[in-house]
Amino acid sequence: MSETLNLSAETRDRAGKGASRALRREGRIPAVIYGGNQEPISIHVEEKELRRQLGTGHFFNSIVELSVAGATVRTLPKDVAFHPVSDRPLHADFLRVSANAKVEVAVPVIFINEEKSPGLKKGGVLNIVRHELELICDADKIPDDIAVDVAGTDIGDSIHISSVTLPAGSASAITDRDFTIATIVAPSALKSSEDGAEAAAS
User: How large is the greatest C-alpha to C-alpha distance in the chain, in angstroms?
Assistant: First the structure.
């Protein structure tokens, strides 16, 4: 399960672009906490710590406990806006969540047992269609990642969501189709030699 992250925040009284720019000059990033049938709270957080947590790779599928005015607010990061040139974070959105809430998160996919795939042993290539899965999870059981087993797969095989075992408390957010996560494809050199052989035979 993803670890809970902690982030200190302070409320901000002034909104608008000028106030936000002033905060950023001081190394703070404006943000908002919303949802949970409560009024939104305008806050700001330390840029350095936000960058560090973004760098964990699990920021968007972790519960973040925000310390605001002596209270702790359980949230799920929903969006961070970045500067188009410098990639500096400009603004962050946090959604309030209760302990028993269901949340929708994008969870990274990792592939295991590649050495047990006949298709990959033959020189096939793992073509990743989805690097993340949209899941509905219990807020306190968000997985770090989803392991997809490619053992036994051959060239031409596809791995669909139906063949993936999701952790308890998690379900796919996409329910209307059995979507593809990855395929095992022939390397281009192998394809071109096969095409050449077919042309010679015809």
Answer: 78
Q: 5-97 and 103-201 share one CATH topology?
A: no
Q: Which amino acid is at 156?
A: G
Superfamily of domain 5-97: Ribosomal Protein L25; Chain P (2.40.240.10)
Q: What is the pLDDT along the chain (202 residues), one digit of tens a residue?
A: 667 899 999 998 766 777 888 898 999 999 999 998 889 999 999 999 999 999 988 899 999 999 998 999 999 999 999 999 999 999 999 999 987 789 999 999 999 999 999 999 999 999 999 999 999 998 888 998 999 999 999 999 999 999 999 998 899 999 999 999 999 999 875 555 555 555 555 5
Q: What CATH superfamily classification does 103-201 receive?
A: Ribosomal protein L25, C-terminal domain (2.170.120.20)
Token reading at 59: 């920021």
Radius of gyration of the chain (CA): 22
Per the CB < 8 A criterion, the answer to whether 126 and 162 are in contact is no
Task: Please give the Cα distance from 167 to 78 (Å, whole number).
Answer: 22
**Length in residues, the chain:** 202
Task: Give dist(CA 27, CA 46) in Å, integer.
Answer: 6
SS3 per residue for 84-119:
CCCCCEEEEEEEECCCCCEEEEEEEEEEECHHHCHH
